[in-house]
Design brief:
Length: 230
């Protein structure tokens, strides 16, 4: 009986060793295919999700070495380089064997724009600036001191823009903030709305909706419960 158990145990060990040997050989063979043969080389790229950026801009920043082995390509390094583009909010880089590298980009959404030292910049809700030749249509310009710096005035302008519903935001030509306590909207129609400080904005928006249906070139809704016309 003991001899039978030893025989079975020996057979199991031999079987496990055989399986382990096969697995090791398979792993080594796969490693040889991936790293030591030209079967899986980077020969194609794809860029998805771009709206303003071009494929050429993304790939130039990505610096993906063509004809390098797929297994040797560090997708994290590629993603880090692409993320340095100001317009890129999120990026994901994936390898699709045998030859394709796919870059998936999520661009920042411009909220407002500004002019600084003769150049145009779009800014997203977090204040990231993106140089442009011409701004996106129907987004307002912010007029503040040092618009590319994180000042109280710029923060007030961005906060205001974020709280304005799209149907009102597209009607605003400029958001002017000389001091953080006085935000002034100049509408595309030529009318002016003085908001005061960027507080109680939801209430001020509702007040705006009412006063803009009334005559008057300038309205002050700093007290949304008591708007005044000038």
């Amino acid at each position: 009986m003991a001899e039978e158990r030893r025989a079975v145990s020996s057979s199991v060990r031999i079987g496990l060793q055989t399986v382990l040997g096969v697995v090791i050989v398979a792993i080594l063979a796969a490693a040889v295919v991936l790293f030591a043969t030209p079967l899986f080389l980077v020969t194609d790229t794809s860029v998805e999700g771009i709206r303003v950026l071009t494929k050429e801009q993304v790939l130039q920043q990505a610096q993906i070495p063509m004809n390098t082995r797929m297994a040797e390509l560090d997708t994290h390094d590629v993603a880090v380089r692409i993320a340095e583009l100001p317009r890129v909010k999120h990026v994901r880089v994936e390898k699709s064997y045998p030859h394709l590298v796919t870059v998936e980009v999520t661009e920042r959404t411009p909220l407002v724009y500004c002019e600084f030292e003769g150049k145009m910049y779009e800014l997203d809700a977090s204040g990231v600036a993106m140089h442009v030749r011409r701004p996106t249509r129907r987004i307002p310009e912010i007029v503040v001191p040092q618009p590319l710096h994180n000042t109280l005035q710029r923060e007030a302008a961005l906060t205001t823009a974020q709280h304005l519903p799209k149907d009102i935001l597209t009607r605003v030509r400029t958001i002017t903030v000389d001091s953080a306590a006085m935000v002034v909207l100049r509408m595309r129609s030529g009318r002016t709305v003085e908001l005061g400080s960027p507080t109680r904005l939801d209430e001020k928006v509702e007040s705006m909706r009412i006063v803009l249906t009334q005559p008057g070139a300038t309205w002050n809704v700093s007290n949304p419960e008591l708007p005044t016309r000038r």
